[in-house]
Amino acid sequence: MKTTRAYAPASIGNVSLGFDVLGAALAPVDGTELGDVVEVSDAAEFTLTCTGAFAHKLPPGADNNIVTLCYAHFFEEMVKAGKETHHVAMTLHKNLPIGSGLGSSASSIVAAFHALNAHFDCPFDENALLLMMGELEGQISGSIHYDNVAPCYLGGLTLMTGNDAKVTVQLPTVKSWYWVVCYSGISVSTSAARNILPKEVAMADTLTFGRQLGVFVHALHAGDTDLAASVMQDVIAEPYRKSLLPGFDDARAFSMENGGLAFGISGSGPTVFAVCDDADKAEAIREWLQANYVQNEDGFSHVCRIPEKGAVEQQVKG
Fold first, then answer.
1. pLDDT at 190 over 80
2. Which residue range(s) make up the domain with 13?
3. Is 267 annotated as a binding residue?
4. Which of 62, 122, 184, 233 is a Cys-bridge partner for 48, taking CB atoms 3.0 to 4.6 Å apart?
5. What does the pLDDT look like over 59-76, one tens digit per residue?
6. 104 carries a ligand binding annotation
């Protein structure tokens, strides 16, 4: 019996200055697996099993699980492409908290599609899979956007193009930066975080957003890390969303006063992130956030890097 296993990492959506168009994959420096895993095995009929630290937070019933929807969509596309199919059994190892701002749904979606595609000998290319992933992510959040699924799938720091023919491009990463992420333990739904935003953005904020994103991309290509860090400020979402995050202002103040180059909300929150260029300072910020920003036993913090690879196949034991 053939079994295929895929891991998909957590991610930071928006990265402060790139609302809905910028995302970064995450890899803890201590080797912790911060992401979901999906296994696919040949079977007589479809089944879905859920396990992992946050499996109990998922909606009850296989039909209500995003992995089941991924399976159905993948097989629909296989039939359209004239590819042979057969039933599989799937297992979701739900390691990321739901509504955390770490791309939890994206991680499940990416792991599911990556595992299915690999299991059936890669009938679809990266861009075709990204389009499927974005469509399924849109069913969760209410709109199609790729700022979590793209870095989760491809790794690195990704910029969305708005062009279905080439969904995303890779940006250079700053190798000296550490990314401290801290999940408080509470849940913030993507839809609630979107509903709190204004329906229109002021002209001044729109101009600032465009300038910052343009300068950031230029600075990364030019290797000007100071300039890149200086424009990592969210003028679109953070002023409104931070009201949903207890302790946000204190966390920002401590981080920026103790070696942080930038600080912001990861996706819709409540996870926050700080950027540092010193390992010791990053660890000190992580410890403070763990002690002061975390709200309950579900919370955690990690010092991370941005990995070059996103979703990967893993060896199946046994």
1. no
2. 3-172+307-314
3. no
4. 62
5. 888 889 999 999 999 999
6. yes
Q: Is 0.90 topped by the overall pTM? A: yes
155 and 214 in one domain?
A: no
Is 97 within any annotated ligand binding site?
yes
Residue 100 among known ligand-binding residues? yes
| Residue 102 is labelled as binding a ligand | yes
105 is an annotated ligand-binding site residue: yes
* Same domain as 268, residue 208: yes
7 shares its domain with 123: yes
Residue 191 has pLDDT above 80, yes or no: no
pLDDT higher than threshold 70 for residue 244: yes
Instruction: Give the separation between CA 302 and CA 295, rounded to whole angstroms.
Output: 16
- 9/30 same-domain check: yes
Asked whether residue 260 is marked as a ligand-binding residue, the answer is no
221 shares a domain with 163: no
> 50 and 121 share a domain?
yes
If pLDDT is split at 50, 70 and 90, which confidence band does 195 have? Answer: confident
Domain count, the chain: 2
131 carries a ligand binding annotation: no
Tell me whether residue 255 is annotated as binding. Answer: no
One domain, residues 194 and 155 = no
